[in-house]
Design a protein that fits this description.
Elements lengths: L1 H18 L3 H50 L6 H6 L7 E5 L5 E4 L14 H9 L1 E7 L5 E9 L5 E9 L1 H7 L1 H31 L16 H47 L8 H34 L9 E4 H18 L3 E6 L2 E5 L1 H17 L6 E9 L2 E8 L21 H7 L5 H11 L3 E7 L3 E7 L5 E4 L3
Parallel strand pairs: 7-9
Antiparallel strand pairs: 1-2, 1-5, 3-4, 4-5, 6-8, 8-13, 9-10, 10-12, 11-12
Helix pairs in contact: 2-5, 2-6, 7-8, 8-12, 9-10, 10-12
Length: 475
């Protein structure tokens, strides 16, 4: 079964890998195509430049020939006879009368030639004394260069020569052109492969587990820094997970051991009848502590999941919550626990309504007050209030407890952290209350501040954003 699964999975993974775009391949293809296009473009441009230079040279040559021919002609009837001596297979010589009729042409039958008065070079020569023109032949691929001069009797002598056009030159040397292009493409292919490999090599060398921000290109530094931050976050999350698992195991093991010991004494009949209620009470208290711990763990788990997914719906709906009523209700519920601890709890302040999650806000205030009662002194007080300061809703919990040492004040909101672990066991806290407070405050965009002095108590202030305020009692 295992071998079959492996065989079935591998081709799928290989096919997926083949579908993935390759950066090196893209570099190579882009460079190769650009190089090949550049080579062809250079070839075409070179041919056009060659054609232009060839036409220019031919034009200058014809202008010199025209001056020579004009100096040899007298403008009489014998000019046709004299032009015959200039006959050449390369240069076409044409004599045109002032009315455009062709009198002589060394390459064509004069009787079959049309009137040339509309030819640009002829018309220009009749008007200014000299004319020039170039015409492309779409059928033959040649460029015909014309130069004409007017004689003293008004006739025009025209010389012409043909030169290969750019595409004709390329076609004539097609084998050479193909060889050159193939050589250039091959060189471009090899150069592109080398360049692509060298460009991608620093990227391939990046170690995701330990990226160095300055080990690659400047453009990749933000990405590498982000990867590095994520690696550190993952390491921190893994460490937090292991610590959390260890702490949960330890916290659950203690009450379970107590429950197991008391239950074993009752089961085996070792406990005296008069001691059974005490052991049953111990089992009840430890089970209650475990229930609180499990509930706090579930609450933190939902808070973590909500922060990761961005889905606040996991924690309930957002509703208008009266913080003044919440602190009063929490103080009323905790009054028996405060009385049992010899602590006085009082709720003060004004009504202010904010948009939030009722259950979480209630738990935030409850945990702050419960923590203040647990770590207070006999005869002390807890004052919880809700009010508006500078347009912002504020909840303040102040106590007259032992206070928190300055060095430990930044850690009290961590999970399972206790300033005095031995005393915390006696008070029955789970060590998660202030961690829940921190996450609940973050979820509502609130700021947490702590002011504490050893021997003089602690004040924790939760400041909600002004935009969360819905109304006050007076509105």
């Amino acid at each position: 079964m295992s071998d079959t699964a492996t065989t079935d999975t591998t081709p799928t993974e290989d096919a997926r890998a083949r579908r993935q775009p390759s950066l090196a391949r893209r570099f190579f293809v882009a460079l190769a195509v650009l190089s090949a296009v550049a080579a062809v473009a250079v070839l075409v441009c070179s041919s056009l430049i060659y054609q232009s230079a060839s036409v220019d040279d031919a034009g200058k040559m014809l202008e010199r020939e025209c001056r020579i021919v004009r100096s040899a002609l007298s403008g009489s009837d014998v000019d046709v006879m004299r032009l015959t001596s200039f006959a050449s297979q390369d240069v076409r010589v044409t004599l045109v009368a002032s009315d455009g009729n062709v009198l002589y042409d060394n390459q064509n039958n004069v009787a079959e030639m049309p009137n040339h008065a509309d030819r640009p070079e002829i018309a220009q020569a009749l008007q200014t004394g000299a004319g020039a023109a170039e015409r492309d032949s779409e059928t033959s691929g040649y460029v015909s260069i014309y130069r004409a001069v007017r004689l003293s009797n008004g006739n025009v002598v025209r010389l012409a020569v043909d030169r290969d056009g750019a595409m004709t030159a390329i076609k004539h040397d097609m084998l050479l052109v193909c060889t050159v292009v193939a050589a250039v493409v091959l060189l471009c292919w090899a150069a592109s492969r080398l360049v692509a490999d060298r460009l991608v090599a620093p990227i391939d060398a990046i170690d995701p587990a330990d990226p160095e921000p300055h080990s690659s290109y400047v453009e990749l530094e933000p990405l590498i820094e982000r990867i590095s931050d994520q690696v550190e976050e993952l390491r921190g999350a893994d460490l937090m997970r292991r610590e959390f698992t260890s702490n949960v195991t330890h916290e659950l093991k203690t009450p379970l051991s107590s429950i197991q010991g008391a239950a074993e004494l009752i089961r085996d009949g070792i406990a005296r009848p008069e001691d059974v209620p005490e052991f049953a009470g111990r089992i009840y208290d430890e089970a209650h502590h475990m229930t609180e711990l499990v509930n706090d763990i579930l609450t933190l788990s939902k808070l973590d999941e909500s922060e990761r997914s961005g889905d606040q719906g996991l924690l309930g709906s957002v509703e208008p919550v009266d913080l003044g009523r919440t602190v009063s209700e929490v103080a009323r519920r905790l009054a028996p626990a405060a009385e049992a601890a010899g602590v006085e709890i009082a709720a003060t302040g004004e009504s202010c309504v904010v948009r939030g999650m009722p259950h979480l806000l209630d738990e935030l205030v409850y945990n702050l007050c419960d923590n203040a009662i647990r770590y207070n002194r006999e005869g002390g007080f807890v004052d919880v209030s809700a009010r508006i300061e500078d347009g912002r809703p504020v909840v303040v919990v102040a106590d007259s407890g032992r206070g928190i040492p300055t060095a430990q004040q930044g850690k009290v909101f961590e999970r399972f952290y206790r300033v005095d672990a031995s005393r915390s066991r006696d008070t029955g806290g789970t060590g998660l209350g202030l961690a829940i407070v921190k996450h609940a405050a973050m979820l509502h965009g609130a700021e947490l501040t702590l002011d504490s002095e050893e021997g003089r108590g602690t004040t924790i202030c939760v400041r909600f954003p002004a935009e969360s305020l819905v109304s006050t009692l007076g509105e």
